[in-house]
Amino acid sequence: MTSRLPLEIWGLVCEQLADENFREPGDPTSTLVGNNAEARRALRALCEVSRGIAHVAQPALFRTYDFGEGLNDGKKHVRFLRSVLDNARLAASVRAVVLDHWIHEIDADEQAEMYGRLADRLGFDTAVYPLGELERVGEHGLPQRVPTVILLLLPLLPNLQYLTMTTRHEEHALEFLGRLHRAGTIRPFASVVQLGLCHGDTEMGFDVLTNGPLLALTPNVTTMRLTQCRGVGSDEADDNGQAMQRKLQQCMPPGVRNLSLDYCNLEHPDLRALLACCPRLERFSYSSGGCSVDEANREVSNRRLVAALAPAKATLRRVALDFDYASRELDEDDDDEDDEDEDGDDANKDELTHESFADFPVLEKVTYGGEVIFRSPRQVGEGDNNVGDVGSE
């Protein structure tokens, strides 16, 4: 009994570190994506004490893995890949993977070895899918940031809940995942409920449909955060953006309840197509963040924003808008029915007011640039904690 007591104590310590200290302070999504360096060092030190303690502590260390964190050492990534491939228990411990940084180059021989092992596990032929073709530079002229072997690890993480990654750089590898998915080689990542897509260059941004293969693999996502998104991305646009919407509906997770658009620059058809795919939306946040390409945001008038949110009218509870750096004005040539103004005085009729959201039955609060412009009667007197955060509960 005495010999078992230390393991029970260390188990409680590890649980506390994993659940409380492995989040970023104030993380609105309450995910395990945060990396507390001090907590991780403490756990590593515990692992060196004895095998018994390591057995308890190691899964906590594998809860979150940021491929861009710390020294970003390619050998460190290989150690992580091998650990997960060799140990099903550690693979089952992974809850969050972060791929939103430049990934240090992995040695070519080690990549080839990992690729072969992943092919054996997933059941595809490397001769049919040569690794070199998946790593080539895309039409955008940018090198692939995330090695294909890392993306192929995702299907082997049965309890992955949170995934965030860069976009536009991984077009070939993402399409490869899509081909394996359509062939039945890999199944959707059913456990992923929070997805973040981002791009490090605000002047370029990314298109949502570029990530269609990944979206199709994450059908149960309820919280989505898009950073530096510039549009949906369909070339088959029609007058009302219906082609974009059809393409997006084929891959967009149907149950998105929390949607955050950060530093984004969307034209009206793109925004409308995106929101039309979120009929269960409960929380919505949209900020331009001073994008250097704010011209598209200018054309999304305030009334157009309200109209675009109409598909989620029955469920929407919180809205946070911030366009401090984007001029909000109507397109003079706009002939959309949802923007017709009875008075014809467009310049002075586009301010958001309490009345703008009067038809949203369960809406609790709307903020615009940090200022409350709508509050339901039942919310009067309540605190303002996390009122605009998409992932807050």
Structure, described:
33% of the residues lie in helices and 13% in strands. With 393 residues, the protein is an alpha/beta fold. It has a domain of 61 residues. The strands form 2 sheets. A 10-stranded mixed β-sheet has the order 1-2-3-4-6-8-9-10-11-12, with no helix packed on it. The chain has a two-stranded parallel ribbon with strand order 5-7. The C terminus is likely disordered.
Query: Which strand order does the major sheet show?
Result: 1-2-3-4-6-8-9-10-11-12
What spatial form do the alpha-carbon principal axes imply?
A: globular
Q: What does the main sheet amount to?
A: 10 strands, mixed
The helicity comes to 25-40%
SSE arrangement, N to C:
HHHEHHEHHHEHEEHEEHEHEHHEEE
Strand content: 5-15%
Low-confidence stretches: 24-34, 325-335, 337-348, 383-393
- Gyration radius (Cα, Å) is 23 Å
Q: How would you classify the quaternary structure?
A: single chain
Q: Would you count the extended β strands for me? A: 12
Distance between the terminal alpha carbons, to the nearest Å?
41 Å
Q: What is the SS-derived class?
A: alpha/beta
Mean pLDDT equals 75
Record keyword descriptors for this entry:
393 residues; alpha/beta; 12 strands; 13% strand; F-box domain-containing protein; two-stranded parallel ribbon; ten-stranded mixed β-sheet; 33% helix; disordered C terminus
